[in-house]
Request: fold
Amino acid sequence: MKLFDVYPLFNITPVKAKDVYVYDENNTQYLDLYGGHAVISIGHSHPEYVKSIRGQVGKLGFYSNSVENPLQQKLAKKLTEFSNCEEYNLFLCNSGAEANENALKIASFKTGKRKVIAFINAFHGRTSAAVAVTDNKKIVAPINAQQQVEFIELGDSKAVEKSLQNNDVCAVIVECIQGVGGLNEATTQFYKSLRDLCRAYNAFFIVDEVQSGFGRTGDFFAFQKHGIQPDIVSIAKGMGNGFPIGGILIHAHIEAAYGMLGSTFGGNHLACAASLAVLKVLREENLLENTKDVSAYFFEKAKTIPQLKAIKGRGLMIGLEFNFPIAELRKTLIQKHHIFTGSATNPNLLRILPPLTIQKKHIDVFVEALIHELS
Ligand code: PLP
Reply:
């Protein structure tokens, strides 16, 4: 059997990794400014993380959700401490798409409505409902032709209100900073208006923090900068530092209902142990502060990058926009300078999503490489 051909691959085989570095089978060291797609939050193979997962697998790796799991309770408690989201309840699943799938399901179930408002260039995942609210021409999903979704320009609150007036919308779903779609962010006023409009028209306000959550923007959640209170927040990626785990924070005004949600693996003991280690290290190593600090340094240093059109994003969720497609540059950065970066829907945008442990000296190395290639 061969692998189903899904991903265009770089010709590199990582076999180990440590902090911000990844090593291939020849022990060549690569600087990871991609974080395995915004997944690595506390650095690769952090000793605390390894200890936590190893310790847990030796005791109890898995048991079903039909019995009490104190690690889930502990994770909910710690998440509350970090995020100040006291008025929320936690449901645990395994990925970002699954989190959004469940968020949309709750919205539809509780409001009795079906239509969803999403935004142009949004990315919410590849499962059935999640892909239906994704606006990306490369991701086609005819299975969802019947899903009622209206894509609106990010920032256009008048169009959102007009759509809500039909009273058939169960949810508005938004990334506070679009990741795959190219680091686009609207104004605080816009996000506040979404909050108010959803309340006025009995629709759920879902904020997708799958990529931007867990400190990536320097705040624990990106929405916190805007002072808004979503009905549901979806989380994954950095939450497990590579161990598959996702979840939704569901506001306490939404009553639980047996049968509505469920998952065999969601919130299993190992996944919780991984996520608890992430939270511990985020705090002990002041990684939110580090994120802000290194980010400010990056934004300043970026002024020296030749041919740079714009720098976008927040914290360590950054896009460098050029006047030309970056595919070749990205390849050169990997092959010649041994630096991993990411791409976006916008072909001219290089995405930087490093582990939050990154230091200024790593930014220097990256900027030097860009100066070398683009001068
Ligand atoms: N939501 C956002 C904002 C994402 O960036 C992604 C993945 O890139 C997803 C959802 C889907 O997450 P997953 O790949 O874990 O299903």
Summary: The pocket of pyridoxal-5'-phosphate is lined by residues 95-97, 100, 123-125, 175, 179-180, 208, 210-211, 236 (CB under 6 Å). The longest strand covers residues 308-314. The radius of gyration is 20 Å.
